[in-house]
Write a structure and sequence with these properties.
The protein is an alpha/beta fold and about 375 residues long. It has 3 domains: about 200 residues, P-loop containing nucleotide triphosphate hydrolases (Rossmann fold); about 70 residues, Helicase, Ruva Protein, domain 3 (Orthogonal Bundle), CATH 1.10.8; about 70 residues, Arc Repressor Mutant, subunit A, CATH 1.10.10. The protein has 16 helices and 12 strands. The strands form 4 sheets. Strands 2-5-6-1-7 form a 5-stranded parallel β-sheet, sandwiched between helices. Strands 10-12-11 form a 3-stranded antiparallel β-sheet. A hairpin with a 2-residue loop joins strand 11 and strand 12. Helix 3 runs parallel beside helix 4, helix 8 crosses helix 9 and helix 10 packs across helix 12. The two termini are about 40 Å apart. Bound molecules: adenosine-5'-triphosphate and magnesium ion. The site of magnesium ion (MG) has 3 residues, from helix 2.
Length: about 375
């Protein structure tokens, strides 16, 4: 079996572990949408590399049914990589919706050609033709028309990964998309970086309300979650991990999903039991894997800076008072250094936000062979 641990991309849904509360909330919104035709939103946010894309992929796979028997949920899934305005947002949604209708038709045609049964599989259909729904109409009115003419669709699931790229106007439209009455309920899942939720609450409070009760700051894995992530790919395999090795992985990575994948992939060995010593021996190779991504985050940091950063990270907060920072032994001159390194940002008097992923502190400790008691 090839190495099942892979830090290079989002987790494969079948190897995805943890995040039970978020997945349960998504399932609940889906069920409310089915029963009461009620639309709703879910917001996932967190630092870089914490697993936002993996979580969205998992949510999609949970609702999509199987390849042979796809569900009645029409999924429009987009990942943003540049600023996207309201017009572009609707264009994306329109394209996505048309694409899904066409895909489903092709799928059913193929099955029928193979003379297999299509019963129970929804044929997504539109009561208007694609050509009617084009040209002179605005992207917004096209969207309305498409949604209203959709047939045999239980729910429309829209996912927007890295929604930080949405323009001010586009963010405003999220509310329209979720709250405008439509015959097919819409579930909207969006992801953003760590400051995204606060930005929504501060600057777009009516939009933030779509996500109230369903916004999730995802961060470190618990020991249970690390265990699940390590063991899930090994069902029916002879490879295993000792309890102590799992505990050590959690400890050295502080539970940051990307670092868990780095150390797991460095430690993996087919058909053997991975123990504590192997994990210890593989810390350097794991750091080497992480370098490509994390090496250049704080190039000018001294060992003392890294320790200060790690102490602050151990508070497990994204917003910090200067008094809290002093309490973990980081004095004002060192706070000033972290501000210059871009780790902290002063937001108002005596209040700082953590700008860099705390995972970087853990990575630098491992790379430099430092520990917090130094
Ligand atoms: N729930 C999970 N189970 C297993 N591995 C995970 C999980 N979440 C994240 N990972 C691992 O962590 C790494 C980063 O995941 P992902 O790309 O989803 O993060 P992200 O938050 O979308 O990152 P970015 O901020 O760069 O967009 C990947 O190596 C992925 O395999
Ligand atoms: Mg991502």
């Amino acid at each position: 079996m090839p190495n099942p641990y892979d830090p290079q991309g989002p987790a494969r849904p079948e190897y995805f572990g943890g995040r039970k509360a978020v997945l349960a909330s998504i399932a609940e919104r889906i069920s409310i949408a089915r029963q009461h035709k009620k639309s709703g939103g879910i917001l996932i946010y967190g630092h870089r590399g914490v697993g936002k894309t993996s979580l969205i992929d998992k949510a999609i796979s949970e609702v999509s049914g199987t390849e042979d028997s796809p569900s009645d949920i029409l999924v429009i899934s987009r990942r943003l990589a540049r600023t996207t305005n309201d017009q572009e947002l609707y264009q994306m949604l329109n394209e996505g919706l048309r694409q899904q209708v066409a895909n489903r038709k092709n799928f059913l045609d193929r099955i029928r050609t193979a003379a297999r049964s299509v019963s129970g599989i929804a044929a997504f259909e539109l009561s208007i033709s694609f050509s009617e729904n084009k040209e002179e109409k605005t992207p917004y009115s096209q969207w309305r028309e498409l949604v209203e003419s959709l047939m045999n669709v239980g729910i429309i699931l829209i996912t927007i990964d890295d929604a930080d790229f949405l323009s001010r106007e586009a963010i405003g439209e999220l509310k329209t998309i979720v709250e405008e009455l439509s015959s097919t309920p819409i579930i909207l899942i969006i992801s953003g970086f760590i400051g995204f939720e606060e930005k929504l609450v501060d600057e777009y409070s009516p939009v933030a309300r779509i996500f109230s009760g369903a916004d999730f700051n995802i961060g470190k894995f618990s020991l249970e979650e690390v265990k699940e992530v390590l063991l899930k790919p090994l069902v029916n395999e002879k490879t295993s991990w000792t309890e102590n090795a799992i505990t050590l992985v959690q400890k050295v990575t502080s539970g940051y999903p990307y670092l868990v994948q780095c150390i797991a992939s460095a430690s993996y060995i087919e058909n053997e039991t991975i123990g504590e010593n192997r994990v210890k021996d593989k810390i350097n190779p794991a750091v080497a894997i992480g370098r490509s991504w994390l090496e250049h985050e704080i190039p000018d940091a001294s060992d003392q800076d890294v320790i200060s950063f790690a102490r602050i990270a151990s508070l497990d907060k994204d917003m910090l008072q200067s008094t809290e920072i002093s309490r973990v032994g980081v004095s004002p001159p060192y706070i000033g250094r972290l501000v210059r390194l871009g780790v902290l940002k002063k937001v108002r008097h005596g209040r700082y936000s953590l700008e860099k992923s705390p995972m970087i502190a853990t990575f630098e400790l491992l790379k430099r062979g430092l520990s917090l008691s130094d």
